[in-house]
Amino acid sequence: MDDIGDAPTAPALRGASNIPEYAVSELSVAIKRTLEGAFGRIRVRGEITELKSYGSGHTYLSLKDEGGKIRAVIWKSAASRLGLRPENGVEVIATGKISAYGDRSEYQLIIDRLEYAGVGALLARIEMLKQRLAAEGLFDAGRKQPLPRLPALVGVITSASGAVLHDIQTTIARRFARPILLWAVPVQGEGAAERIADAIAGMDRLPAHGIPRPDVLIVARGGGSLEDLMAFNEEVVVRAAAACRLPLISAVGHETDTTLIDFASDRRAPTPTAAAELAVPSRAELTADLTQTAARLIGAVVRTTSANRARLDAAAVRLPDLSSMLGNARMRADDRGQRLLLALPHLVAAKRAGLQRVERHMPVPGTLIGAQRHRVELSSMRLLNGLRHVALAARGRAAGLMPRLSLAPVEAGIRAEHARLAVLAARLEGASYARVLARGFALVRHRKGGAVTSAAAIKPGARLVLSFADGEANATADRGASGQAELAL
After folding, report:
1. Is residue 10 predicted with pLDDT exceeding 50?
2. Which of 123, 167, 250, 320 is the most buried (most CB within 10 A)?
3. Which residue has the higher pLDDT, 391 or 202?
């Protein structure tokens, strides 16, 4: 390293008068000039820490290793040319120049280029991002969507100039020709991750301006080193794949290559050709499956029809002769009808004979009332005789008591019983229809003995019996001019 200014020799330093004197700003400028002149552009390897970005666009950070730490700054003008996005904990190789910041007497590295410090650093960064996104649930199996059986339109996001697009087109045309909607993007380099994420989101937002929306989406690129595939390990791409509503197939690199988009996609294909095979079925296989299914269906229908026919034949054998059954049923119905016609007159005659027998045993109302009156008179006479005997017996027993007793109470009791008996007899006589007949009324009865209580019940020509107070007379009912029945004696 060059000396700072015109530094005195060692002997002169021991004398205070020979030590040069600097202002603080002069010393800062001298140190800055010495650092920039001695080192020029350098490459520094270390782990990013204390990363801070400001609204001005400048980024401040530190690089550290086991033995030290150096401050660094990325100016806004260099941010777009870095090559990667700085993150805390990532080991990088920073390219830039050493400079000093005089206001705080600090030196720092002004960075204009960043690259990962080997494959190990890249893998560590990828693993750290993978764990963080997995903790958010972006890789959960429940988020996976099924692929369509036969898509009408296949969306492809890849480079327009690579062999990947040709492989996908050839495979789809060979298996089952489907139209392809291409969204061309750069698949590596600066800004590739943002372009890929925008393409995924753009495909998901279709249809727009008449462009149809694909049924399945393929994100693909060919093989390459880990650095070449880093665009598909960026967080922005992984989040866009996880948020896509279209079924997404990732096909990045060769079969042994694995990127973070593979975990967020709905299906991972080892190669772009395999992705096209997953997206579109084989026409020959579909035709063979349909032919086999049709054959199975036809066989099942034939077997079912044969079995049903056999069951129908067996049932037909067990069925009786319907025409014979119908003829027998018709004959039975005729026989029953004839017997019914004969049975009704016999039934009516039997019922009439029964009624006549009952009528003969029924007493005539006048006779019944006379018998009841006779029984009442006999009871009255027996009661009077009994009372008389009782009175005579009581009189005999009380003969000795007569001087002291009076017969007035007993005679009063007898008179009271006679009076009560007379009232009962008057009531009985009043209830008798004979008294009614004596006042000029007549009792109308059928010849069979039933009483007639309504003129409407009398049919013309009916034979009737009229009971009067002094005897009975026969009569015949005729139809009068008024339509009512009239009697003719």
Report:
1. no
2. 250
3. 202
Q: What distances in angstroms separate CA 6 from CA 3, 9, 18, 20, 154, one per listed residue?
A: 7, 9, 12, 8, 74
In our burial notation (b when 16+ CB lie closer than 10 A, e otherwise), range 360-370 reads: eeeeeebeebe
Q: Is the pLDDT of residue 478 over 90?
A: no
Instruction: Scan for tokens 């010393």, then name that residue.
Output: 27
Kindly report the length of the chain: 489
Q: Which tokens in the block code for residue 77?
A: 């003008």
Domain count along the chain:
4
Q: Residue 9: pLDDT above 60?
A: no
Q: pTM score, two decimals?
A: 0.47
Same domain, 156 and 216: yes
Beta strands at 216-221 and 154-158: parallel, antiparallel or unpaired? parallel
| Residue where a domain stops, chosen among 284, 306, 326 | 284
> Higher model confidence: residue 84 or residue 444?
444
Phi-psi bin for 18: left (phi > 0), alpha (psi -120 to 50), beta? Answer: alpha
Q: 248 and 200 in contact (C-beta within 8 Å)?
A: yes
The predicted pLDDT at position 364 comes to: 61
- 380 & 418 share domain: yes
What value does the mean pLDDT of the chain take?
A: 82
* Contact in structure between 43 and 117 (CB atoms under 8 Å): no
Domain boundaries, position 172: 151-284
317 contacts: CB under 8 Å, gap ≥ 6: none
Q: Do 339 and 347 form a contact (C-beta atoms < 8 A)?
A: no
Q: How far apart are CA 65 and CA 46, in angstroms?
A: 5
pLDDT in tens, 215-230: 999 999 988 887 788 8
**CB-count exposure of residue 168 (10 Å: 0-12, 13-18, 19+):** buried
